[in-house]
Design goal:
Elements (H helix, E strand, L loop, with lengths): L1 E5 L3 H12 L3 E5 L3 H8 L10 H10 L3 E4 L2 H7 L2 E4 L14 H13 L4 E5 L7 H16 L7 E5 L9 H6 L4 E4 L3 H10 L1 H4 L21 E4 L1 H32 L3 H9 L20 H14 L5 H25 L6 E5 L14 H11 L3 E5 L15 E2 L3 H5 L4 E4 L11 H7 L4 E4 L6 H6 L3 E3 L4
Parallel strand pairs: 1-2, 1-4, 2-3, 4-5, 5-6, 7-8, 9-10, 9-12, 10-11, 12-13, 13-14
Helix pairs in contact: 1-3, 4-5, 5-6, 10-12, 10-13, 13-14
The structure holds uridine-5'-diphosphate-glucuronic acid (UGA).
The site of uridine-5'-diphosphate-glucuronic acid has 21 residues, from helix 10.
């Protein structure tokens, strides 16, 4: 099939690359010229494991193209994906200006019955609104008034850092539409993934055995949109729940890691997303929880659980600062090392990263901060300018009074802790992700402080 992807951000780029990989001809469109120029050369603007290999291979075999020419991309395609950003507005609502722009452009250029797939996370009910914007644009710009189209909601569930695997080996695929024809077309498009029949570079590394069927949830537009918000809200709730339990653990002397294992083995609970720590960040959970709470508010519903989930997450970051104050007493003039800046490992995304919040608070208290991240090399705009970014972990640790692990990058497990003990002024580690081996570090003479243990 010929597919057009509007927006080459995280979701758009990964979706485009993966649809090309399973045999489609994909045209990715973006209005940012420098981004397209880079992509045409096979250079990914984001850090995502294995994305570059697939990107380059599909450019080479001619199935993947990048352009700023939205008109031709829309005209040539059977299925048009909207994958543009939906940032938060100051009041927690969702800014739909990019979705509106994309829908308007679709209306200007569609020329025959097309399927419009919305993958951007949009407020409940936006599928119908997208239809309306396209229809209005059609009336305004397109003489072919009998053009028909169908809108589908197909939320994404991919995680940054494992986006390619999440696309090829999903837990489920959700397709929401009122059009049976459109649903059938989407089922045909996703057939290689649903049947796990696509070629994979190494069969031994398939996360789901070849041929095992992936569940598909077919729904109306609104329910598909709601599934996306509910999924992210539930996952964030799991994390805030375990963080709340971890705070009790600290007081009663229990170890949260064992609690997570003990409850997670109950299949009704599940082991994933029960890692206590400094909390969740990123471009999705914070934005989507705020949006769902805002949408509920429009209907007079107070989202009591979601509000607590958000509050616990905010406090969790503060708790680390409190731990540091307890330990160092006077934070002013102390030098603190922070390992990990991105909101989680295997990504260079720093949006709403807990590390940034913690560092900014420590600077306000008068601390000096030396930070290091394996991938984030440019100081994020939201980070206090007084923070210095170091080229390697040892530079960031030298002559510091305390070390914080803010992101669980594999690289930190391989650090030489004998050397670290020698170069630190005081050997104190706050492990914000419960990632390091406490017994090992204590034997080496470190004071180890985890979360909830
Ligand atoms: C999340 C969802 O997991 C995806 O399914 C969804 O598609 C995506 O949002 C989206 O809406 O686009 P992502 O934000 O990439 O994906 O990252 P997650 O792996 O979910 O982690 C989110 C945050 O939770 C990170 O800051 C991570 O460190 C934190 N986390 C995660 C914990 O603190 N504890 C855990 O046990 C798991």
């Amino acid at each position: 099939m010929i597919i057009c992807i509007i927006g080459t951000g995280y979701v758009g780029l990964v979706t485009g690359v993966c649809l090309a990989e399973i045999g489609n001809n994909v045209i990715c469109v973006d209005k940012i010229e420098e981004k397209i120029e880079k992509l045409v050369k096979g250079k990914s603007p984001i850090y995502e494991p294995v994305l570059s290999e697939f990107l380059q291979a599909n450019i080479k075999n001619g199935r993947l193209k990048f352009t700023t020419d939205i008109s031709n991309a829309i005209k040539e395609s059977e299925i048009i994906y909207i994958c543009v950003g939906t940032p938060s507005l100051p009041d927690g609502g969702v800014d739909l200006k990019y979705v509106e722009e994309a829908a308007y452009e679709i209306g200007r250029h569609i020329n025959s019955g097309k399927i419009i797939v919305n993958k951007s996370t949009v407020p409940i009910g936006s599928g119908d609104w997208i239809s309306m914007v396209i229809s209005d644009s059609l009336k305004e710009n397109n003489s072919a008034m009998n053009v028909s189209f169908d809108v589908v909601s197909n939320p994404e569930f991919l995680r940054e850092g494992s986006a390619i695997n999440d696309t090829f080996f999903p837990d489920r695929i959700v397709i929401g539409s009122s059009s049976k024809k459109a649903i059938d077309k989407m089922l045909e498009l996703y057939k290689p993934i649903i049947n796990q029949s696509f070629k994979w570079p190494d069969d031994k590394k398939r996360l789901i055995p070849k041929g095992r069927k992936i569940p598909v949830v077919i729904s109306d537009l609104t329910s598909a949109e709601m599934i996306k918000y509910a999924a992210n809200s539930f996952l964030a709730t799991k994390i805030s729940f375990i963080n709340e339990i971890s705070n009790i653990c600290e007081k009663v002397g229990a170890d949260i890691s064992i609690i997570s294992e003990g409850i997670g083995l109950d299949k009704r609970i599940g082991t994933m997303f029960l890692n206590a720590g400094i909390g969740w960040g990123g471009s999705c959970f914070p934005k989507d929880l705020r949006a769902l709470s805002y949408i509920a508010g429009e209907y007079g519903i107070t989202t009591q659980i979601l509000n607590s989930v958000i509050n616990i997450n905010r406090e969790q970051r503060q708790k680390v600062v409190k731990k540091i104050q307890d330990e160092l007493k006077i934070v002013k003039s102390k030098t603190i090392s922070v390992l990990g800046i991105s909101f989680k490992p295997n990504t260079n995304d720093v949006r709403e990263a807990p590390s940034i919040n913690i560092m900014n608070n420590l600077i306000t208290l008068g601390a000096k901060i030396k930070a290091y991240d394996p991938i984030v090399k440019v100081k994020p705009g939201t980070l206090n300018e007084k923070v210095s970014i170091c080229d390697n972990a040892y530079d960031a640790i030298t002559d510091t009074d305390l070390l914080i692990i803010a992101t669980e990058w594999e690289e930190f497990l391989k650090l030489d802790f004998n050397k670290i003990k020698e170069i630190m002024t005081r050997p104190i580690i706050i492990d914000g992700r419960n990632f390091l081996d406490r017994d090992y570090l204590e034997k080496k003479g470190f004071k180890y402080i985890g979360i909830g243990r």
